[in-house]
Amino acid sequence: MGITILLAVARAIQVQVVESPKYYAQASYQQTQTRYTQSPRGAIFDRSGNLLAISNRAYIIRADARTLTDTAGVASALAPALGQSVEDVRKHLDAIVVDGQSVTPTLSTIVAFDLSPSVTRQLTETLETMGRGGLLIDETWGRDYPQGAVAGPTLGFVSLQPTGYSGIEGFYNSELTAETGERKERSRMDVLVVTPTTSGADVVLTLDLTLQAFVENRLAQAIQETGAPSGTVIVMETKTGAILASASYPSYDPNRALEMASDGQIGLLKDRAVSELYEPGSVIKIATMAIALETGQITTSTLMTDTGKLVIDGKRIYNSDRSGHGVVDMEDILARSLNVPTAMTALDMGPEKFYSHFRLFGFGSRTGIDLGDEAAGVLRTPSDVTWSRTDLATNSFGQGMSSTPYQVINSLNVIANDGVLMQPYIVKEWREPNGNVIAKQPVPKGRVISPATARTLRQVMAIATRRGTPKAEIAGYTVAGKTGTADWYLQGIKQDTTIVTYVGFVPAEDPQITVLVKLDQPSSSKWAAETTVPIFHDVAERACQILGVPPNVLK
User: Fold this and answer.
1) C-alpha torsion angle, residues 294, 552, 237, 404 (rounded to 10)
2) For position 69, what pLDDT does the model report?
3) 134: alpha, beta or left, given left = phi > 0 and alpha = psi -120 to 50?
4) How far apart are CA 156 and CA 170, in angstroms?
5) What is the pLDDT of residue 6?
6) Closest listed residue to residue 137, CA positions, set 126, 148, 152
7) pTM for the predicted model, two decimal places
8) How far apart are CA 324 and CA 341, in angstroms?
9) What value does the CA radius of gyration of the chain take, rounded to a whole number of Å?
């Protein structure tokens, strides 16, 4: 008996004195809770301070499959808040309950997300009154886009994590994301450690909201008038590469992005201007003419004989009107958009000279624009085993290659910008929570052609524009532009429809803005002059008014 007591006393001393720190630490650990806190994601503004994206308090509702029993009652309370039928909500809840009973559940338990505090509070009160449970409510930050669908694809969207996808939200996710904070406590009154959270940086874009809205409305009007299922319009500041407006159709409202993704429409959540490849067609002729001028292959007065047909390795190349135009010069080639003399010029240059300069324009490479999901484009050169002289001929007028709309406007902006290739950008600056402002500067990527070559070519283009596409002319301004029409292929089979593009600079002598208009498969006309040129006119004219570009021609 005495030995037993002695052992008990010894054990008590060991536990209470010798091992006391160890047990205290274990007890403290078991009693301590760690709560993670999150500050809001940074806001996004246009160049004038108009709000485009902001994070507000929001709530996520999850179904607890272990405790949810009365799915009918809960559905009747949830349905009005979700804007859905009671039957649909009940089916969703029943599916979650059944799935939660399986060994490996596969369904998400999220019933609703981005609910406002007021809606969540009302819903909670309703459920408490009914005596219904089985729901878990998480507080988070929801992403709101006050302008709705305006600039939607350019902005991108944010998941529930929250993580940015596509557009600005994806490319600048690390800058916009807030740092996670931490709070360790034994109770609300006994806080042990607090690690503060920091809000994400605010981002200011180069976009002008007024111009952006006009461009989107004009594109939507054009889609209606031409019957084209899709299209893109981009306005760029010539000398800096800053994007002033960018619109694509179909578009989407980023406020509905998560809903669209859950409905299987993830393929629609992209920016066609930055990720969709297409054959640009004859707008590329001005790059070919620039190379020919720069290398001394031809001059503006060089004469060529256009027979209307050219055979290369068994492949026939024709002019779009299937006619020969006899003796022509550069002005004729651009005004009539002649394929044959353009291809002859490239063939006379030879592949080494042509492609060494052609790649300097940026074709076949990403532009480096600060938007998510940018595609690179495809350009075969003699180093590719599939390349042939036919590629050299067709590449000279923008076929047999692929580019994004951003790549096309940025490459041809070289001619507007006195021969210098810029890196396009859409973020003007971001503002960190500590007050630091990080401003972006224009980035020249290199000289492609001389200023003299660029100015000479713009003069020829301005004359060709007056001759070939007078609808592009803007009162008070000179315009230098070029149409492009490319065939449309479906599963390798040529269709009786086209892709049409127009790229133009205003004013021609000293361009301030560069504009691209692209439409896919318009049914009203297969030619760019009839479809894209009127859009260019309206967009460029409005851009000059909004941006205060002074006229250079007396009315």
Assistant:
1) -60
2) 78
3) left
4) 7
5) 44
6) 126
7) 0.85
8) 10
9) 31
**CA proximity to 44, closest of 151, 196, 160, 179:** 151
Q: Is 214 helix (H, G, I), strand (E, B) or coil?
A: helix
By the 8 A CB rule, do 518 and 403 touch?
no
Cis peptide before 507 (omega within 30 of 0): yes
Q: pLDDT per residue over 97-150, tens digit each? A: 888 778 777 777 887 777 777 777 777 777 666 666 777 777 778 899 999 999
Sign of the Cα torsion 70, 73, 76, 78 reads negative
Do 32 and 186 meet the contact criterion of CB atoms below 8 Å apart?
yes
Burial 401-412 (b: 16+ CB within 10 A, else e): bbbbbbbbbbbb
Which residue pairs, CB below 8 angstroms and at least 24 apart, start in 255-263? 255/144, 255/145, 255/148, 257/157, 258/113, 258/114, 258/157, 258/159, 258/160
- Encode pLDDT of 11-35 as tens digits: 444 544 445 555 445 544 455 666 5
In angstroms, the CA 357 to CA 367 distance is 16
Cα 483–Cα 421–Cα 475 angle in degrees, nearest 5: 45
Q: Nearest-CA neighbor of 156 among 268, 320, 13?
A: 268
SS3 of the chain: helix, strand, coil, percent, to 5: 40, 25, 35
Could you give the maximum distance between any two Cα atoms of the chain, in Å? 125
CB 393 within 8 A of CB 409: no
Residue in 239, 261, 240 with CA at minimum distance from that of residue 252: 261
Which residue, chain included where needed, has tokens 């004469």? 303
CB 333 within 8 A of CB 460: no
